[in-house]
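Support case: MU-OXO-diiron complex. Customer-provided input:
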Amino acid sequence: MIKKKIEDICNRQVEREGFSSNLYLAMASWAETNGFSGVAGWLYAQAEEERLHFLRFIKYINERGGKAVIPELKMPQAEYKSVEDVFKEVLAHEEFVTNSINEIVSLTMEEKDFNTQNFLQWFVMEQVEEEASVRGILDKVRLVGANNMYQFDRDIMSLRTPPANAQAGQ
Ligand code: FEO
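Agent response - structure generated as follows:
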């Protein structure tokens, strides 16, 4: 049975993963309506991944005898200055999520909850990959500059990395 403290912090993460999905949808909508269909495709795919993270936490909490709470989500930012601005925000958000996952790992150590610690290992790896992938994209955006955005937009989907160790359906 999951301890209340762990259940609560996992529910906090349910909200953060749900928000991540909506945030990337808002960015995708901005990109799509500003002529960046490739960037939009990347963000839509990322939003789907975040939805799977959201589900993973929901199912884990319930599986351990807790109750996942489906939260109200705050409205994400809808307007961005540029593609670079979007990816700066993606990176800042992923760093925030990494810290959030690390806080849960730290609490599971204090509480000696080895099951949850084990569950979180996938997220620890996933965050390393997501941050690295977004840093790589941001470097490229800066390299190509505003004038070559057309080519960048065409090629961005080839920069996608699959989820950590591709354990599908878990
Ligand atoms: Fe689910 Fe990208 O953090």
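The mean pLDDT is 93.

Case will auto-close in a few days if no follow-up is received.
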